[in-house]
């Protein structure tokens, strides 16, 4: 009997940079999700630009602008943690369809009020509260749903690409919104945003449910919110990112308040200039997000570096002598911003017990958006009593302080306790490290 000499086995080629960067898009449900979200998010950024400009037009007050942002994010602070409890209990896909539909309805109402010229400041405030309440439940549901689409192995890449998509929309939406405001009026931006939610709801309804990997729903029980808070406090790789984001979210991520006034009063620019400086931040975030997706790093060390980079670049924008230079440096702000968010989000999700992931993401959203009811008016007040440059500078300093505090805490816990490993799942991957 003769034997066949198979010869040397050729080892598989390692994935290219492009394959590593976009690896989660191999999942059909995630591709469908990204398509719908990319359309809707352009409309969302258009609405955010238009809403800021509408409030500034109605009131000519940076404090009023901060108040609207605060009202829109206050429900995240009040109800966000409970939204995480609901996300851990519920069918996330079904809940997302309902919540995304409600967001479209609210945009439609604001658009009709504005187009017909009957909008009042108190109505903008009321709709901001309703949208914020919806977001308190939608944020944690949407972000924890990503893991159900892609599984644990692709979670880090999917989170980063999702941040890239958000910021790609930031690059397009505000610029388009600024032009539309100048050409056809503010109300059209709200109506187009309402229409964009058709795309995201359709993408959700078309998903293959059999390909999803849902975490076991958490049975209803008393004390689940307190349980989540205790778990977060006892897990350094969750508690430290939350503390860092709490400070950065409080004072740095108040661009809806600081940037419109910065453009108008410092450089005497209009809605188009505001749209383009916001777009510059989005372009930088896209580039930075793709870089982060390809590298795939998590943990406190890269998060601290991103925090420091965000602080330095914000200070550079704050004291830029001309608008062109401010726009150029906003590219770096976008890069550092998306890196900070994506690394922190991934670290928390990869460390969390799967049955508590919704609650951990809810706490992340509270630290990110829920601090705005305090930070938005505070930054608005700083601008009112000093100047717009100071509003951005305060945010830059907060990032540097957060990075220094995170480094100090990480060194204190390193060697004293190993990172908490997540409970067993069908896919295995090491938990995110502290450094």
UniProtKB/TrEMBL annotation:
Where's it found, cell-wise? Cell membrane
Q: Where is the signal peptide?
A: none
Q: Please give the GO cellular component terms listed in this UniProt entry.
A: plasma membrane
Subcellular location, principal: membrane
Keywords, A to Z?
Answer: Cell membrane, Membrane, Transmembrane, Transmembrane helix, Transport
Q: Which Pfam families match?
A: MFS_3
Membrane-crossing ranges are: 64-85, 97-122, 179-207, 228-252, 272-291, 303-322, 328-348, 360-384, 390-410
Would you say which domain of life the source belongs to? Bacteria
Keyword Electron transport assigned: no
Per the record, membrane topology reads: Multi-pass membrane protein
SUPFAM superfamilies per the UniProt record, alphabetical:
MFS general substrate transporter
Record's PANTHER family?
INTEGRAL MEMBRANE EFFLUX PROTEIN-RELATED, STAPHYLOFERRIN A TRANSPORTER
The name under which this protein is listed is: Major facilitator superfamily MFS_1
What organism, scientifically named, is this protein from? Catenulispora acidiphila (strain DSM 44928 / JCM 14897 / NBRC 102108 / NRRL B-24433 / ID139908)
């Amino acid at each position: 009997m003769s034997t066949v000499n198979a010869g040397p086995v050729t080892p598989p080629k390692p994935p290219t940079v492009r394959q590593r960067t976009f690896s989660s898009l191999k999942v059909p449900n995630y591709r469908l999700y990204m398509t719908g979200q990319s359309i809707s998010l352009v409309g969302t950024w258009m609405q955010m630009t238009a809403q800021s400009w509408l409030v500034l037009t109605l009131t000519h007050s940076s404090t009023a602008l901060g108040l609207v942002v605060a009202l829109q994010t206050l429900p995240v602070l009040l109800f966000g943690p409970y939204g995480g409890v609901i996300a851990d209990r519920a069918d996330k896909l079904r809940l997302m369809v309902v919540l995304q539909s409600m967001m479209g309805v609210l945009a439609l109402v604001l658009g009709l009020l504005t187009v017909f010229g009957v909008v009042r400041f108190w109505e903008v405030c009321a709709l901001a509260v309703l949208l914020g309440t919806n977001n308190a439940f939608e944020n944690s549901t949407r972000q924890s749903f990503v893991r159900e689409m892609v599984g644990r192995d692709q979670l880090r890449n999917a989170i980063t690409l999702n941040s890239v998509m958000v910021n790609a929309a930031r690059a397009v939406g505000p610029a388009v919104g600024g032009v539309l405001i100048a050409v056809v009026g503010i109300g059209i931006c709200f109506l187009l945003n309402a229409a964009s939610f058709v795309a995201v709801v359709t993408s959700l309804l078309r998903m293959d449910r059999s390909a999803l990997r849902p975490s076991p729903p958490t049975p209803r029980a008393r004390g689940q919110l307190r349980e989540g808070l205790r778990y977060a406090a006892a897990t350094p790789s969750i508690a430290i990112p939350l503390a860092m984001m709490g400070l950065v979210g409080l004072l740095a991520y108040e661009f809806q308040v600081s940037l419109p006034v910065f453009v108008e009063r410092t450089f005497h620019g209009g809605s188009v200039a505001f749209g383009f400086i916001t777009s510059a931040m989005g372009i930088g975030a896209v580039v930075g997000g793709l870089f982060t997706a390809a590298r795939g790093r998590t943990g406190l060390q890269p998060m601290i570096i991103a925090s420091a980079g965000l602080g330095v670049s914000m200070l550079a924008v704050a004291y830029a002598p001309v608008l062109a230079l401010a726009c150029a440096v906003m590219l770096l702000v976008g890069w550092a911003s998306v890196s900070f968010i994506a690394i922190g989000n991934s670290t928390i999700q990869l460390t969390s017990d799967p049955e508590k992931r919704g609650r951990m993401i809810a706490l992340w959203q509270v630290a990110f958006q829920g601090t705005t009811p305090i930070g938005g008016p505070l930054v608005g007040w700083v601008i009112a009593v000093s100047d717009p440059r100071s509003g951005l500078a305060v945010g830059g300093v907060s990032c540097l302080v957060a990075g220094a505090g995170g480094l100090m805490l990480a060194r204190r816990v390193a060697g004293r306790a190993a990172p908490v490993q997540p409970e067993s799942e069908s896919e295995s991957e090491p938990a995110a490290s502290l450094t």
